[in-house]
Model the fold of this input.
Amino acid sequence: MTGLASPIASSRKGARSLSSWKRRSLGNCEGQGDQWRFVSSFRVEIFGASLAVVALGAIVVTLAIHQGRPLPQWPHMISINALIAIFTGVFRFSLLIQVAEGISRLKWLWFRQPQELGDLERFDSASRGP
Done:
């Protein structure tokens, strides 16, 4: 049987790669190289948090600039209310990213130990929303 990989060896290799994937996705860092992997595994959450801060800052700045002044004459009938609504939509979207990713990570932490299969459906429906 030269040249053929044994099923036991390939299943062990798959188990190791699955284990390393779990460590990366769950944020278990043990060395200097793993710190970057830990940060990169949270890049979606970091992007969502950054986007939320920028959108909230844009709302505050827009309201602070136009407080106590008459409505500006912007082109294409865009009002301050429309601009605030756009920033609010971006803010809500970025918070939704945070919640969905958090629930998905919680699912993997929950299933580290044997649990009921119905819990998987609950986690999936919670991460997708109503």
Remarks:
- Confidence is low (pLDDT under 50) at residues 1-15.
